[in-house]
From TrEMBL:
Pfam families: Aconitase (PF00330), Aconitase_C (PF00694). Residues 39-480 form the Aconitase/3-isopropylmalate dehydratase large subunit alpha/beta/alpha domain. The lineage of its organism: Bacteria, Pseudomonadati, Pseudomonadota, Gammaproteobacteria, Acidiferrobacterales. It is an enzyme of class 4 (lyase). SUPFAM superfamilies: Aconitase iron-sulfur domain, LeuD/IlvD-like. One of its GO terms (cellular component) is cytosol. It comes from Sulfuricaulis limicola. It comes from the Bacteria. Pathway: Carbohydrate metabolism; tricarboxylic acid cycle; isocitrate from oxaloacetate: step 2/2. One of its GO terms (molecular function) is metal ion binding. Residues 560-689 form the Aconitase A/isopropylmalate dehydratase small subunit swivel domain. Belongs to the aconitase/IPM isomerase family. Its cofactor is [4Fe-4S] cluster. This is Aconitate hydratase A.
Length: 759
């Protein structure tokens, strides 16, 4: 049986020991019945004595129990962490190599290729993990969320992970929240992590799952009901008798895909099926402790008796009535039952012939999932029937892979033609080297993954990706067509009909899990002893130099305006992803993309600007910024409303800071980006009068006054010197707290931590 790393068990033991006392303090403070999500949030609140937070309004500091990072996002997070001067991560942290493995021919070969092409990244992550006391999961060991569920998740805990599907651990009763790298760095250096206190959606499950219906159908149905925006700034909390009808891993599928609704996270109450999963994954002690603390790991009885008083909205799903669903294309909220699929395909002219079917990923590769899919495959095998289209299987972890291999489930799938891919994200994150369909060719695929927006799986905007449960996907692999209903009508082959029996499978392996190949490297006994490996010639990685503090008077005079962003300027306009992602560990290289998607009011072509030093218009903004920087000149970026909306990517704040940005002055900010700018030492300002945006001309110089005596809430005077010799003044506002002013004075939040460290 697989053994969970010892440090993980110690963390949970300590947490549970203090839980009754923590909850007593929480109850005294809140003085009202609490939902499960509230219990967990309050128990991790940095300042419990502060005023009670208002849902959807108050931002609070929290102390998570753990941090998990995947290999793509971990690079810059660790590079930043290293500049803070800490000897080890302040909370237990793990790194998981799952995103960089391309799927092409099959598990063994694909893994070998990944190990050589990504060697410098893996060497860096492994050596930094050893140096700073973090657990390291090698390529091939599994997908971050599955590994977290198997080893680290625990009921009542709080984890942040640098990946959107971190909420997967909500299936084990944990609040698990996907964040950007900058948030992970905060927690790793010991700072409280900030969260907008969420609103709560209560989902009452009644009835029982049966037949073809699975956990996947619960979330596909809910996506159809709430839509992709239905969970924004909300936690989805499940309750009701029906919750017991889902296995722990089925619950994880549901919470995993809460991310598709934009939810902060999703969570299920602790129950026996979670305890069973904990025992099966080698954590009997945690199962017993959680069982003895169940009152703190579920919502209060009063909440369950009158949910309408305690959740902001309530949705009800009767599992007994729920049908298996298919969602898509292009969005997960386009949901319909399988029985309506054929009509929908014809009505919307979706490509009816499937070109590929894929099961597994972090969302749906549990022992139970693969067992149910294999049951469908066995029925086909018994009749000599094979999948009519390629069928690929992505196991979520080495433990799952080894166990399903030992128990013959992989063989069942291979017998109908399935290809087994590496235990990694692969086609789920577009790492699919597909040669059977040309770019631009219209085609349909069906997966049991979680995301299906255009290009997500194979980079082809014309691929129509649909999503269903693994067992439904395998059934469709047998017909090869979306305009069919293999569940109700069976599969026709050679003039015969195969009526498929509803799938059934064991929830957990009767013989226990087989750990497979060991892919885990424990944190070094003595953090600080290993050296960190970065190839100085690398194009993908470069160590970071701390950002120099800027003189608060001289450094904010005579600043040219690099960009006056017109209309929408998201983090994707500021720091586009796509091909640039391979440089995410190399700040200088990735900064070549800075503002390349931004519409500049001063030029006609996105990403270009006016160089005040040469008088030339139309040069790339990053080149102009580099020229200013070389001349010791800081600069200002001006923006419109909701500047920096989109992802929480820290590069959108780091690249401007690196290339000399002093101030970002906008009509309004997206909150997370504004905080990221503050962390990096860039001053975010908003126009006191939004109309002042119009005053800014392309050859202006700006002076920001009074920064040497900056205080919270102070109005900031801005002086514009126009090129014609005229001058104007206006006011701007800032939202820095006194702690954040200290970041600004130090040049960045991490600089401040480093100086505190060395005192
Ligand atoms: Fe993300 Fe990998 Fe899952 S790409 S959705 S973590 S399989």
């Amino acid at each position: 049986m697989e053994k969970t790393p010892a440090d993980a068990v110690v963390t949970v033991r300590n947490y549970y020991k203090s839980l009754p006392e923590r909850m007593a303090a929480v109850r005294a403070r809140a003085a009202r019945p609490l939902t499960l999500a509230e219990k967990i949030l309050f128990a991790h609140k940095a300042d419990l004595a502060a005023g009670l937070p208002e849902r959807g309004q108050t931002t609070v500091g929290l102390h998570p129990d753990r941090v998990a990072m995947q290999d793509a996002t971990a690079q810059m997070a660790i590079l930043q962490f290293m500049t803070a001067g800490k000897s080890e991560a302040a909370v237990p942290t793990t790194v998981h190599c799952d995103h960089l493995i391309r799927a092409k021919v099959g598990a063994i070969k694909d893994l070998e290729v990944a190990e050589s092409t990504n060697k410098e990244v893996y060497d860096f992550l492994a050596s930094a993990s050893a140096r700073y006391g973090m657990g390291f999961w090698k390529p091939g060991s599994g997908i971050i969320h599955q590994v977290i569920l198997e080893h680290y998740a625990f009921p009542g805990g709080l984890i942040i992970g640098t990946d959107s599907h971190t909420p997967n651990a909500g299936g084990l009763g944990m609040l698990a929240i996907g964040v950007g790298g900058a948030d992970a760095v905060d927690v790793m250096v010991g700072m409280p992590w900030e969260l907008l206190w969420p609103k709560l959606v209560g989902v009452r499950l009644t009835g029982k799952l049966s037949g073809w219906t699975s956990g996947k159908d619960v979330i596909l149905k809910l996506a159809g009901m709430l839509t992709v925006a239905g969970g924004t700034n909300k936690i989805i909390e499940y309750f009701g008798d029906g919750t017991a009808s889902l296995s722990c891993t089925a619950k994880a599928t549901v919470t995993n895909m809460g991310a598709e609704l934009g939810a902060t996270t999703s969570v299920f109450p602790f129950d026996k099926r979670m305890a069973d999963y904990l025992r099966a994954t080698g954590r009997a002690e945690i199962a017993s402790l959680a069982s003895s603390l169940a009152e703190h790991l579920t919502a209060d009885a009063e909440v369950l008796a009158h949910p309408e008083k305690h959740y902001d909205e309530i949705v009800e799903i009767d599992l007994s009535q729920l049908e298996p669903h298919v969602v898509g294309p292009h969005t997960p909220d386009l949901a319909r039952p399988v029985s309506r699929m054929t009509a929908d395909v014809h009505a919307h002219d979706y490509p009816a012939g499937l070109t590929a079917t894929l099961i597994g990923s972090c969302t749906n590769s549990s022992y139970e999932d693969i067992g149910r899919a294999a049951h469908v495959a066995r029925q086909a095998k018994a009749r000599g029937l094979k999948a009519r289209v390629p069928l690929m299987v992505t196991p979520g972890s080495e433990q799952v892979r080894a166990t399903i291999e030992r128990d013959g489930l992989l063989a069942d799938l291979e017998a109908i033609g399935a290809t087994v891919l590496a235990n990694a994200c692969g086609p789920c994150i577009g790492q699919w080297e597909r040669s059977d369909v040309a770019k631009g060719e219209k085609n349909s695929i069906l997966t049991s993954y979680n995301r299906n927006f255009p290009k997500r799986n194979d980079g082809n905007p014309s691929t129509h990706a649909f999503i269903a449960s693994p067992e439904v996907v395998v059934a469709y692999a047998l017909t090869g067509r979306l305009d069919s209903d293999p569940i109700h009508e069976g599969v026709i082959f050679d003039g015969n009909l195969l009526k498929l029996e509803a799938p059934s499978a064991a929830e957990l392996p009767l013989k226990g899990f087989d750990a497979g190949r060991d892919g885990y490297v424990a944190p070094a006994e003595q953090a600080g002893s290993a050296s960190v490996t970065v190839n100085p010639k690398s194009e993908r990685l470069a160590l970071l130099e701390p950002f120099e503090p800027v003189d608060k008077v001289a450094g904010y005079q005579n600043l040219p305006v690099l960009l006056k962003a017109r209309g929408k300027c998201t983090t994707d306009h500021i720091s586009p992803a796509g091909p640039w992602l391979k440089f995410r560990g190399h700040l200088d290289r990735i900064s070549d993309n800075m503002f390349s998607g931004a519409e500049n009011a001063f030029t006609d072509k996105p990403g270009t600007g006016f160089n005040v030093l040469t008088g030339q218009a139309g040069e790339e903004l990053q080149k102009i910024a580099r020229a200013y920087k070389a001349g010791g000149l800081g600069w200002v970026a001006v923006g419109d409303r909701n500047y920096g909306e989109g992802s929480s990517r820290e590069h959108a704040a780091m690249s401007p800071r690196y290339l000399g940005c002093r101030v970002v002055l906008v009509r309004s900010f997206a909150r997370i980006h504004e905080t990221n700018l503050k962390k990096q030492g860039v001053l975010p300002l908003t126009f006191a009068d939004p109309a002042d945006y119009e005053r800014i001309r392309r050859d202006d110089r700006l002076a920001i006054l009074g920064l040497d005596k900056l205080t919270p809430g102070q109005k900031i005077e801005v002086k514009i010197a126009h090129a014609d010799g005229s001058q104007e003044r206006f006011y701007a506002l800032h939202s820095l707290t006194s702690d954040q002013i200290a970041w600004f004075q130090a040049g960045s939040a991490l600089n401040l931590i480093r100086t505190q460290q060395s005192r």
